[in-house]
Hints:
The protein has helices spanning 5-19, 23-33, 41-49, 53-66, 73-85, 90-96, 100-108, 118-122, 128-140, 144-156, 161-175, 185-197, 205-221, 225-232, 241-254, 258-271, 275-295, 302-317, 327-336, 357-364, 443-451, 463-466, 476-492, 495-506, 517-526, and strands spanning 324-325, 345-351, 369-371, 382-387, 393-402, 405-411, 417-422, 426-432, 435-441. By secondary structure, it is of the alpha+beta class. The chain has a domain at 302-460: Beta Polymerase, domain 2 (2-Layer Sandwich). Helix 12 packs antiparallel against helix 13 (205-221) and helix 14 (225-232) packs antiparallel against helix 15 (241-254).
Amino acid sequence: MQIEEYERQRLLLLDRLLQAQDYLSAEQLITAQAPLGILGDAAFGAARALRLTAAVVYLATLGAANLAQPNDRKFWLSVYQSLTQGRLTAEFLQIAARLPVSWVLREALKAPGSRFDVSVLKRCRGTQQNWIDAVELSIDLHQLKLCEQLVRHRLAGKAPMAEILALAQAIVGRQGLVKRLHDLEPLARSLAMIRQHLPNTQQFEDIRNLLASPISACFLKSGCYEQAEQFAHQISGEAHQFVRTRALAKIACHAGDTPRSIALLDQLLESLLTVDGRHWLQAQQQLRAEEHAKLGGQPFAPDAAAQALRDLQSVLSAAGQAIFLVSGTLLGYMRERDFLAHDKDIDVGVFAGENPQRIVDALLGSDLFWAEVRTTGERPYHIPVQHLFTGISIDVFIYHAQADRWVTGVQSDFGFVQTFAFTPFELRKIQFLDIDFYIPDPPEYNLFENYGAWQVPDPEYISHLESPSTLAVGGLVYQLVGRRVVLHALEDGHFIKAARALDLLEQHHRRPGGMSLALIEALRAGF
């Protein structure tokens, strides 16, 4: 499901106020936001999907008491009261004892590792919406194996096609909200069962194509590369060839076959020169432009950034870690004593020390951040986190002592690790956004190693290809990154940046994995 940023922000604020027991401010927020639909079904559904338990209980209570049509508010109130109390309440049993959501709750409240009692599920009864509610709740609780059992049960029970399609829509809609979980295999199997159940006719061909992509993505996230590739190949039809090729390139990279991933990206770039490819690229450019316009093209608010940094500092200080500004955020501080105008996230660094795992554990154990730990490579270099309250993204770079250098890197969700080496530095305390913070000392030399002539703004600078700190320049990972830069630049309509990346790739075209001069010239001429 698509949750607008404004919706997410106000629900997060409400949940935070309720957890702080600031009920007066929560009431004032509801009063101000009521004309804007905060008591409506869409906001209530978003609160459930975002796993904001306090907000769900509060909105359900208000809705049940005040809405002319409270719809399902009493039902969900009884569900979440059971969750918070750790038992099925009398109110819940009175409303929903035989509904499928009761089975989800019973299983979710069991001790971890307990076996599923499918016999109880077989006795459940309900409408199409009741079964969808159960599937959504299982995903919201991160009980993905329960979702799989529900789908298997409904397919075995010959559920009507309308319900099967609705179940698929519910799962796909919530897939993006659980993408940080490492094991999405139950979701992949759930969607694969639904896809297999669909009639193999032209009428359902588009739906089968649409399902193949998230199935492949879920298998890939779970490390099931063979199954991921199997379903990526089933993204059929000329209209979907670009999605298919990109998916196969990503799978190959995750599986460690970098040369094949490079070859597939070259195939994708070459296909963009066709009529169909140009149409697809124009559609991508339009989507990117609309997305940029929706966000307003504005950087994040300084007060929100300050709050996110304070919370990150609090979490990592408790783990004995000092955080310091790096990369674009350090560049903004040194140039303007602020963020750069185009910044969309914050860059900070930490020293790995003897136990880098405690950094990972501190972030994963925090209730202030979402953290995505990517397992590519032998050690953690890069942890993308998102501040739950403000939505601000922060890249946490972990610096490891290797020989006479500090080495950090990017662990991409595409499946590669690119590393960068810096001269060891001390830390200097500074004030940034009225917060005591640290920066590398001397900062000028650190920025020189990262950007070269850092004092001169260069909007087309490609740090992953041009940074003096880049290791293995011209190697296979460098070649792969170059293709991705070209592709993303074309999708964004940044043709100057694409041309610059092609110039850099040309310098290494004789190396293993180098792009052919014929393709380089064709892309230059075509765009």
